[in-house]
Amino acid sequence: MDIFRTKSVEQSIRDTEDPEHQLRKRLTALDLTVFGIGVIIGTGIFVLTGQVAKDTAGPAVALSFVVAGVVCGLAALCYAEFASTIPVAGSAYTFAFATLGEFPAWVIGWDLLLELALAAAVVAVGWSGYFASMLESIGLPLPAAVAGDNAVINLPAMIVVAILTAVLVAGIKLSSRVNLILVITKVAVVLVVIVAGLFFVKAANYTPFIPEAVSTARVEGVKAPLFQVLFGITPVAFGVLGIISAAAIVFFAFIGFDVVATAAEETITPQRDVPRGIFGSLAICTVLYVAVSLVVVGMQNYTQLSTAAPLSDAFIAVGQDWLATIISLGALAGLTTVVLVLLLGQTRVLFAMSRDGLVPRGLARVHPRFGTPARLTLVIGVVTMALAGFVSFGELAELVNIGTLFAFVVVSIGVWVLRRTRPDLPRAFRVPLVPALPILSVLACLYLMLNLPVETWLRFVVWMVLGVLVYFGYSYRHSRAARAGTGR
């Protein structure tokens, strides 16, 4: 069983020229940067800032964002080299197939299903919460059965997914225009938070900047970071270990720059523009995250921060209710773009897997008018609607983090492998200091993974075991490589 057969870079590129499975090239560096900002600025900046400051890191949450941003930056270097060398849909899945083989590629593709589909549904539920709250504030409350934490069916979440699915079916350029409008809105709101919040910052709220480490119920048992359990360290919040644990959580806030790589096949000049889109979106969002977190913990003592809506509640606490309303509107725009781009990334990964036969190949057909994988987009939309409408997620969102970090590890290893196996390939962007930087990226990602709770690891292992069963039950036998009798 040759489960490590690879797919050559040349074959991957030839597949993009098949008229039946050919995506239209419409995107520029600006489009990609806006896509990246659209998916990165969302739940992290509007929700996680308060949660991790209050429970895990204190005012030093800004350092947690810096740590997470640096780890993402290392992985971004590897993504940029791959995306400029293999400008094909599928991101980490495609990169793994070209370097490590079919089975590792399947594992990454299965992992990305967890990352993108679950994240899109989780964010859609968050969008529903903000939407219901906004309607209630103007005297139009939704029935508890269709919105809220105990809803029988989360109708607003399902509706927003349905609308965005239709936008994606209609074409990549329309999707980028809708995303641009919403991104401008939410970035403007974030800048308002930073500038207006500066007038209410109190220096006393920054002391102590790194609170003393304490053991809390939140980090006991299976909720404790795996790293602390493995090495017999008493699980703690705050302190230096708290900053690192918080970085593993706020990492969720940076998820998205890798989605830029999934759109490489639809970019007019991918060798130049994909690296620009990746680095541009990541740099802009890191600066905004650090600035917002410093302002929020300066406005309100970290022990009093809201974990549901920290930004708007911080302004309410200083008597600026009107700004809280503006922030809620910005959060709605922000979460809308996150769902849109996550759905885009999900469809492109599955599109690449379908084109290779690892999932039913008929799903990869491109719509003759819209130039998008319409069937696949509709399937993803329906599944995400079902998840958002009927499943309560809670802390399952942390699964998204571990899935993303695992993909980063594989991409970082893959860059080093491809440098050794195909040194002849033209590379518009090259990671410096290979293999030192890719190895550093792998170690940094693994360390953040080890700082996620034990229960997250258990769920991740179960998901991966299920993926292995699906691969050997269906994908191995239906693979195009298997039918063609290709190998290394």
What does this structure look like?
The chain is mostly helical and 488 residues long. Helices cover 67% and strands 0% of the residues. The protein is built from 19 helices and no strands. Helix 6 crosses helix 7 and helix 8 packs antiparallel against helix 14. The two termini are 12 Å apart. 56% of the residues are buried. The model has no long low-confidence stretch (mean pLDDT 85).
What is the quaternary state of this protein? single chain
Broad shape: globular
The fraction of residues in strands falls at: under 5%
Counting helices, strands and paired strands, the structural category is mainly alpha
What is the mean predicted local confidence, pLDDT?
85
Specify the helix fraction band.
55-70%
- By DSSP (H or I, 4+ residues per run), the number of helices equals 19
Rg result: 22 Å
Termini gap: 12 Å
Describe the main β-sheet briefly.
none
**Helix and strand run:** HHHHHHHHHHHHHHHHHHH
Q: Uncertain segments of ≥5 residues (pLDDT<50)?
A: none
